[in-house]
Amino acid sequence: MTSTEGYTTESIALAVAPKVPALLSLAGSIYIVWSVLSAREKRGSIYHRLMLGLSVSDILSSHIYFLGTWLIPRGSSGPFGDVYMAFGTFETCQYSGFFNQLAIASPLYNVSLSIYYFLHIQRGWKENALKKVEPAFHIIPLVFAFGTAITAAVGEMYGNVFWTCWINPDPPQPYFQYFQWSFLFGPVWVCILIQLSVMVTLWWTMRKQERLISRKYELKAPTTATIPAETNGTRVRANRRKRQSINDEGKYSSRIAVQGSLYVLVFCITWFFPTVQRISELANGQNYFAIQALDTTLLPLQGFFNVLIYMRPKYTTYRRKYPDLTVGTILKIIHDPKVERKLVTEFRSMHTRARDRRSTTGEFDFDGQPNIPEEMESGNIADGGTESNKTNKSEESKDIKMIESKDTRKPTKTSNTRTETASEGSANNTERDVEMETDTPTTVRRIDMVGRIQSVSSDEESGLDS
C-alpha cells in the first residue's frame, strides 16, 4: 500500500511507532536516575546502584529510538519501501548505530540484577559481602558494550536497518550477520537463559522454605490432659508468634523474588520480537511487517516497564496502608515521603467536606446513594404538576428536618399554653417538643420523648402560640 507522499503505509508506521514508547522510557529512566541520585540511602544501596546503571543504559538507547529514522541518510530504502522521514547523513547513522550497540549493556545489567537477587536470597549474602563483587556487576556490562560498539564503528559496520541504524553495512557484507549475533542477539539470549535459570531457582527455593515452615510450625491440638490449660495456651501463642515471624521473613524473600521475576519478564518481552525478526532474516531472508511493528513498539518500552516495576513495591505498600487514596496522591507520596501525613490529611478532609456538603444539600443520602423521593421513584409525580401537588408530596418526603426544642422545663401551673397542651397526654413526665418543618403550613408534626408522633392542625398551632 502506497501513501500520497510516495511512502508506503508500512514505512510511515515503522517510522512513527517508536516515538511515544521511547519518550515514555526516557521519562521513566530519568526518574529512576533522579530518584537514586537525590537520596543518600539509595546511593548506598547495591540494588539502587544497579538500577542506576540499567537506567543510564536505557536513556542512551531510548534517545536513539526516539530519533529513529531522522538519523538515517536521506534517500535510504528498505524491505518496506523508502524510509520515511530520513533526514540524516552517514555520520548521523554512525552515531545512531554506536548507541544502538551500547544497548547491549541493558541485558547485561539485568543479568547483574538477577545474580544480585540470587546471592541475596538463595545464598543469604549480606550487603557487605555483596559489595565485594559489586564492581563486576558494573564492569562486565560496560566493557562489553563499549568494546563491541567501538569495534563496529572502527569496522564501519553501521548502516540502515530501516527504522534506525545498526550493524548492517552498505553495501551488505557476507560477515555482518555473524557480528549481529555475536555482538547483540547471541549475548541477549544467553542473558535470558541465565535470568530464567536464576528465577526458577529462586521460586523453587521459596516454595521449599514455605513448605518447611508450614510443617515445622503447624499448630497441633492442645494436650490439656498432661499440660495445664494456661501453660498450653501460652505455648500455642508463642508458637504462633514465632511461626508468624518466620512467615513474614519468607514473604519478604518471596516479594524480592517476584520483583526480580518481573524484570526478567519485561526483558524477555521487549527482546523477543527483535530476535524473531533476525531469525526470520537468517531462515528465509524475509522481513514480516507485523513482527517488525512489534519490534519497533516494544523494544523502546523497556525503560518505561522498568520504572513501573521499580515503583511497584512502594505503591503496593501505600495502597494497602491507604486504600481510599487516589493513584495520583499515592504517586505524590512515593515522590516525596516527607509529605505523606500532610497529603493524607488534606485528601481525607477534602472528601469529608464534600460528603458533608452533599448531605446538607440533599444530593445524596448518608449511604452515598442519590436522594430520590418515593413519589419520583414510583412515577407518581408527572411533569408539569401543580405547585400544590408538589407541596403536598414534599410534606410526605423523608427529608424532614427535626429541630429539637430548647424548652426542657417541667410543666407547671405558670407554663405557657404550648407546654400545657403538649403535656396533657403525660402529666408526670417531662416532654420535649420537636417540630418537624415542612414546606406547607397546614400541618405541624411533633415527636415526644417516647417517640409518639402528634399531628396538630394549623388552627390548633395558632391557638398554642397565642
List the helices and strands and how they pair.
Layout: H1 9-16, H2 19-37, H3 40-43, H4 46-67, E1 77-78, E2 81-82, H5 90-102, H6 105-122, H7 127-154, E3 158-160, E4 165-167, H8 176-216, H9 229-284, H10 289-298, H11 302-321, H12 327-335, H13 340-361, H14 374-378, H15 387-395, E5 402-404, H16 417-422, E6 434-436, E7 443-447, E8 453-457, H17 458-465
Antiparallel strand pairs: 1-2, 3-4, 5-6, 6-7, 7-8
Summed up:
The protein has 466 residues and is mainly α. Helices cover 64% and strands 6% of the residues.
Task: From the structure above, extract its key features.
two-stranded antiparallel sheet, disordered C terminus, 4-stranded antiparallel sheet, mainly alpha, 8 strands, single chain
Mean pLDDT: 76
What class would the helix/strand composition place it in?
Answer: mainly alpha
Order of helices and strands: HHHHEEHHHEEHHHHHHHHEHEEEH
Largest sheet: 4 strands, antiparallel
User: Could you estimate the helical fraction of the residues in percent?
Assistant: 55-70%
Strand order of the largest sheet: 5-6-7-8
Question: Any overview of this molecule?
Answer:
With 466 residues, this protein is mainly alpha-helical. It has 17 helices and eight strands. A hairpin with a 5-residue loop joins strand 7 (443-447) and strand 8. The strands form three sheets. The chain has a four-stranded antiparallel β-sheet with strand order 5-6-7-8. It has a two-stranded antiparallel sheet with strand order 1-2. A two-stranded antiparallel ribbon has the order 3-4. It has helices at residues 9-16, 19-37, 40-43, 46-67, 90-102, 105-122, 127-154, 176-216, 229-284, 289-298, 302-321, 327-335, 340-361, 374-378, 387-395, 417-422, 458-465, and strands spanning 77-78, 81-82, 158-160, 165-167, 402-404, 434-436, 443-447, 453-457. Helix content is 64%, strand content 6%.
